[in-house]
Amino acid sequence: MGIRIKGIGKYVPERIMTNADLEKMVETNDEWIRTRTGIHQRHIAESSTATSDLAANAAKAALADAAMDASELDMILVATVTPDHTFPSTAALIQQKIGAPKCMSFDIEAACSGLLYGLDIAHSMIFSGKHRKVLVIGAEKLSSITDYTDRSTCVLFGDGASALILEADDSIEGDFYLGGEIGADGNYGDILQVPAGGSAIPASHDSVDRHLHFIHMDGPKTFQQAVTSMTRACRKVLEKTGVSPDQIRWVIPHQANQRIISAVAERLNLSDSVYCNVARYGNTSSASIGLCLDELHHSGQLQRGDLILMTAFGGGLTWAAELIRW
Ligand code: ACO
To answer: Do β-strands 75-79 and 104-108 pair in parallel, antiparallel, or remain unpaired?
Structure first.
């Protein structure tokens, strides 16, 4: 039995927030944002749009790409830090929105590493023989947890969703998933977090007044951990799989910041293979790697057999690196 990626889809809201728009909201400027982050603009959802709406649109695009009907799906995994609600899961809401069967559907919370966590779980489920067709989504309405009075974070984030369909196929040989290195270190949980809204600090007037429902981040520490964890994870995957850097066709890092991406690529000696779209979308957390894969796929830049190294880090801290063959 072979296992492959059968379809990829994405969705970003129409509305664009440029750096010039942010200049009117906080004390910042286009030059600072571009040079420190590489971001030129980000897409922002309307207030009436929820993460499940973004995700359902991406899922429908992936189903169309796979020429598959939602009724064929065995499982839905949704990576998000901006679920519609604490519960029900966003995955269950998407199941209803796309008309999938009443299949196993649940959310994964691994912040920006979420899509890669989801791919690993989905692949394992198919590999074990339990499921055959799995939808994995990374979807975020980060604008709903972004503090637009905090210039150190509000310039970074955007909204969007990406979706991948994995399938077991008896007519092909080979497995697209060559290896992964995935982990988490709760010692760094406080450098990147939304402090309130959970059981530790339930919502109150005080928590709202203190802006505790928004992303709080120690930027320089996050930067340092991001570079270290992604570089280490990528090296381990290459070591495990016996693949050398010159065999890699594409590197798709989580699109957090151009400087982080460049630092990781330089350390791995893979600068020429990196795909970036952070300039157009900003940091879309769990959606970002899928947005890149979708663009590469639909612009015809992926050739059969290409080796693709994907890597991410996120709040937790979490990290992941996965090597796949297209
Ligand atoms: N415009 C202008 N000046 C700013 C802005 C802004 N938007 N933001 C911060 N500054 C100022 C700071 O106040 C500081 O001023 P000071 O020296 O007078 O105090 C100065 O710029 C430098 O601040 P630093 O934080 O040291 O800037 P740095 O070069 O580290 O860049 C950044 C900041 C871009 C946030 C960087 O640290 C970074 O990319 N960190 C990682 C971010 C990231 O990837 N986060 C992942 C989140 S993903 C998730 O899980 C949701």
So the answer is: parallel
| Substitution site in 17, 152, 214, 259 for ligand 1 pocket (most atoms within 8 Å of beta carbon) | 152
Separation between Cα atoms, residue 289 and residue 250, nearest integer Å: 12
Contacts of residue 145, Cβ cutoff 8 Å, sequence gap at least 6: 81, 82, 194, 213, 214, 215
DSSP category for residue 187: G
Cβ–ligand 1 contact at 39 (below 6 Å): no
Residue-wise pLDDT for 106-123, tens only, equals 999 999 999 999 999 999
Q: Is 72 helix (H, G, I), strand (E, B) or coil?
A: helix
Dist. CA 281–CA 98, nearest whole Å: 25
Rounded Cα–Cα distance for residues 312 and 261 (Å): 10
Burial (CB count <10 Å: 0-12, 13-18, 19+), residue 209: exposed
SS3 201: coil
Q: What is the mean pLDDT of the chain?
A: 97
Residues 274, 275, 277, 282, Cα dihedral to 10°: -50
Planar angle of CA 177, 90, 18, nearest 5 degrees: 85
**In whole angstroms, what separates CA 228 from the centre of its chain?**
19
CA 156 to ligand 1 centroid distance, Å: 9
220 lines ligand 1 (CB under 6 A): yes
Distances (CA, A) of 42 to 30, 34, 252, 282, 310: 13, 12, 19, 5, 22
Nearest CA to ligand 1 atom 11: 152
Each residue of 126-146: pLDDT tens digit? 999 999 999 999 999 999 999
